[in-house]
Amino acid sequence: LEDVSVYLIVDRDGKVMSTWPGAISSDYDPFVREAFRAARQALFNWSFEPVVKDGVPRFVRGNVTVFVSHSERRRATWIWIQNRKRQLRKARKNNDQQ
Questions:
Q1: In whole angstroms, what is the distance from residue 85 CA to residue 13 CA?
Q2: How many CB atoms lie within 10 A of CB 5?
Q3: What is the helix, strand, coil percentage profile of the chain, to 5?
Q4: Global pTM exceeds 0.70
């Protein structure tokens, strides 16, 4: 299992205002970087119950960790290989036509 942490700030209405990378288990792994990007985008669609202290809604900083299984990694790798093969065939076909 790989994990991706995303830090976030939630505004007074419970909406995610900003995100940035937290700890990533494999910084140089393209699959994990893509998982981080997808998690970050998904968080902007989330909403939280506003945190209220002394009757006043507050901004909140937090962290969300997403776990990615190895079976998802294998499937993503297979999809990447198939897409790359298509790209190479298309490039070869274009070169043959020129």
A1: 46
A2: 15
A3: 45, 35, 20
A4: no
Encode the chain (98 residues) as per-residue pLDDT tens digits.
Answer: 667 788 999 999 999 999 988 765 555 567 777 777 888 888 899 888 988 999 999 999 988 887 766 676 677 666 767 777 888 888 888 877 76
Copy the structure tokens of residue 82. Answer: 């198939």
Name residue 98's amino acid.
Answer: Q
- Reported for 42-51, long-range contacts at CB under 8 A and 24+ positions apart, including other chains, are 43/6, 43/8, 43/16, 43/19, 44/16, 44/19, 46/16, 47/13, 47/14, 47/15, 47/16, 48/10, 48/14, 48/15, 48/16, 49/14, 50/10, 50/12, 50/13, 50/14, 51/10
Query: Taking a C-beta distance cutoff of 8 angstroms, is the pair 62, 8 a contact?
Result: yes
